[in-house]
Model the fold of this input.
Amino acid sequence: MRGHGFLLANYVRGDSLVHRTPLWAKFLVVAACGAASFLIVDWLVSLLVLALLCGIFLLTGAGFRRLLRAVWLVAPILLVIGAFQWWQLGGPTAARIVLNVLVCVVAASILTATTPVQDLLDGVVRLARPFRRWGADPERFALTIAIMLRSIPFIAGAFSDVRDAARARGLERNPKALILPVFISTVAYARQTGDALAARGLGEADDYPEPPPGRG
Done:
């Protein structure tokens, strides 16, 4: 299967100020942008924040094309959301919601473009360690995120490949020709991933508590 872009920008080597910023600070920026998406009520403020983040992204050296790709991949969804919100709540509210989503996307893209994946996962493990007292497993949590980061591009790529193949056969309007092959390849991929984890001793039955014995 050919490579496909992911929703967020891939890591780009560099020595910019953003690259050298501590990971915890980048996490705080992403969290602040997520919180701001609920607090900002003026679309002009959202636009200013988005412009600032876009400028920071370009300062990382990742390039305008990577930024455009990250935005372009969510454009169809934002178009639907924006149209619906415009119809329900008016233009300014629709613009604010769409811009706030873009703020979150660009902020997360800055994080992933300036931080290696392994460093991100190590940071997640450190953040999750305080939750051990409630039974959380930070390593498994990081592994789940790693699998998600790998699986989403695969599923997106599978859909793109199947769509191209269906278009070549004149079946692009046939839901079965699009959905069924993607479903089959996704299930196969999930089973292969599960087998690989089991081969490494992860996700085995011994890792989980046994169910209580049946009555009688």
Q: What stands out?
A: The chain has eight helices and no strands. The chain has a mean pLDDT of 76.
